[in-house]
Amino acid sequence: MQKKIVLLPGDGIGPAVTEAAASVLQQVADIFSHTFTFQEKQIGGAAIDTFGEPLPADTLQACKEADAILLGAVGGPEWDRQPPHLRPEKGLLQLRKGLGLFANLRPVKTFPSLLSSSPLKQEIVAGSDLLIVRELTGGLYFGTPSERRDEGQTVVDTLHYERNEIERIVETGFQSAMLRNKRLASVDKANVLESSKLWREIVDEKRKDYPEVAVEHMLVDSTAMKLITNPTYFDVIVTENLFGDILSDEASVLTGSLGLLPSASLRADALGLYEPVHGSAPDIAGKDIANPLGAILSAVMLLRYSFGMEKEADAVEAAVNEVLQSGFGTQDMQVKPESIVGTEKMTSLVIEQL
Ligand code: NAI
Ligand code: MG
């Protein structure tokens, strides 16, 4: 297959981890006889420095024409004092909005060799493997009015959803469950919120199209408890924007290793934006010590969700597992001092294993 991938390295450690992920993708293309073309574009602080804006029109256009987008990270202290429209993060928000990416997917999986990195007891986290599907472009963060009244002493935020916005994210939840262990927890607050009642109705309609998926309605507060007391309970969680924001950050600490976590932002067609969960880590930029695995596992999601390349995705994931199983890790992971490797070495270990 021929595929066009836009690379958005961004700032800080972004370029190093993006390069790592791209070289793994190139190896996949070589092994499985695909042709991947890579086009590099600017975003974030790097784009502000060169073009005076965080998301140049040329970058957005290239992304619209791509089959998939791989992003490093944006931001850093150099741009902290810029006005809001000249902040690196603005570029990322504009990109998600400009492409209509309404579904954010964050998988969290514990690796057997890294259980001691978790803040939770090993017997609780062992075997955790879950995916949070969060609605990204609606709900409380975008509803209007959102304002202060009565000289600021009254405040209003609006939780607004249209039926079609709920339908498409719920659909993504079911499709994700079909790609995994076919268990879906739909998380809401239907005992209080009107929006959650419509959410439940839609989930109950859609489940008829997915008879193989076991569906459970759960309330967000008890889900929050269960995520840390019994994380292996979950396969796929689908939820609205605010709940998903909070639950995905909660889930991200289960593994104890931020540098390992990937994410995807998707829409109804195959185009997706893939990026590690971590930021630009300016404290370690340029030192060849950043963990490239969050970016490499984001490339695994890219293969799976945008290209439908299941066996290629499985192969990279297995290679990463193998490398971790051999005890290797970057400095942010809890491995033996003699097994600590840098960004480039970790990447070449994965490529060799592949
Ligand atoms: P951060 O995720 O960049 O760093 C937090 C800590 O984790 C730091 O100590 C860092 O060294 C470490 N770390 C992060 N990724 C790592 C990796 N791959 N390997 C090894 N260690 C890693 O978050 P922080 O420090 O809050 O933000 C730094 C900058 O990144 C800020 O400008 C922030 O706005 C931006 N940011 C960007 C995001 C994005 O592009 N999606 C997400 C989060 C933050
Ligand atoms: Mg958050």
Automatic annotation (TrEMBL):
Binding site for Mg(2+): 221, 245, 249
Pfam families recorded: Iso_dh
Domain of life: Bacteria
Top EC class for this record: oxidoreductase
Every Isopropylmalate dehydrogenase-like domain range: 4-350
Pathway info: Amino-acid biosynthesis; L-leucine biosynthesis; L-leucine from 3-methyl-2-oxobutanoate: step 3/4
Cofactor-binding details, from the entry: Binds 1 Mg(2+) or Mn(2+) ion per subunit.
A single MF term (Gene Ontology): magnesium ion binding
Cofactor(s), by name: Mn(2+); Mg(2+)
Binding of NAD(+), residues: 76-89, 279-291
GO biological process: L-leucine biosynthetic process
Descriptive protein name: 3-isopropylmalate dehydrogenase
